[in-house]
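Researcher: Let's walk through a ligand-bound prediction step by step. First, I give you the protein sequence. Second, the SMILES string for zinc ion. Third, you return the three-dimensional complex as structure tokens. Ready?
Model: Ready.
Researcher: Here are steps one and two:
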Amino acid sequence: MKQKFSKTEAEEKITEFFSDIKRKTPEDVKKIKKLAMSKNIKLGDKRKLFCKKCLSPHGNSSIKINDGFITINCGNCSYKNRWKLKKEIDFGLHSHDDGCC
Ligand SMILES: [Zn+2]
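Model: Step three, the predicted complex:
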């Protein structure tokens, strides 16, 4: 069964996906990356929410910030994901706004 999304629908799906990234599996990440690619949607900062190498969401990974760089040590494969730190970075990893339930 093939389902076709419009670009807007795909974007919504991706946003929804990343709002609950911690509960996703690398397999899910792979799928959403494929969807984004097929629709020419850039993931941008959302790519920083999962490991570059094993695609595991950064749930219990350790995050270090120094010298304008951010390093996330993957909790799954120990790969060091490193980016230049930008002011407007959005990790979506808020620990204080679990307002629901
Ligand atoms: Zn990893």
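Researcher: And what stands out?
Model: Helices lie at 7-19, 26-38. The chain is about 25% helix and 15% strand.
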